[in-house]
Amino acid sequence: MTRLRISEIFYSLQGESNSVGLPTVFVRLTGCPLRCGYCDTTYAFKGGEWLELAQVLAQVADYAPRHVTVTGGEPLAQEACLELLGGLCDAGYRVSLETSGALDIGQVDPRVVTVMDLKTPGSGEVEKNRFSNIDHLKQTDQVKFVICDEVDYHWACEQLQAWDLDNRCQVLFSPALGRQDATQLAEWILRDRLHVRFQIQLHKYLWGDVAGK
Hints:
Layout: E1 3-13, E2 23-29, E3 49-52, H1 53-62, E4 67-71, H2 81-90, E5 94-99, E6 113-117, E7 142-147, H3 150-162, H4 165-168, E8 170-175, H5 182-191, E9 197-198, H6 202-207
């Protein structure tokens, strides 16, 4: 019997990625092997509730959504996440996965849009990046850089070029809230003619830094 440890299941607007603004059900799995300095979901490191896969799918269905995002913590830290992703796709949802990029994405259902971080030096977890994941990226996937400062920005630009990321998939640059001025990051992107999508965390501007939103 497949079980997952669930921190929360909630309905909100997607705050990031190229589906920003769309009503979405979020399934947040408990647990994460990383400790990024800017993490805003530390409550998901432990606790949560064990649910059977069928119970998770039933709770998602109650919202009658089109879009579902599986997130964490680090959802791939639970082996059953792969089965969850497949089950959500089978149910007809448009499914995305938010992952740190520290764990293998090679077995993720190809119907899933993978939104994968590459951790910058400012995160404190740059050494956890699993660069072999880049070979598994599809054109429908997205790579996200959370920028803490100018050092992070230049590091991200180096990765963008070294891995030809903007020709592999969509690339997202996001300012770390409280650490990198959003307008300044936008100006750098325009100055350097980068082929990336600038984004801010919409949900935080609407509701603040609270769980369940």
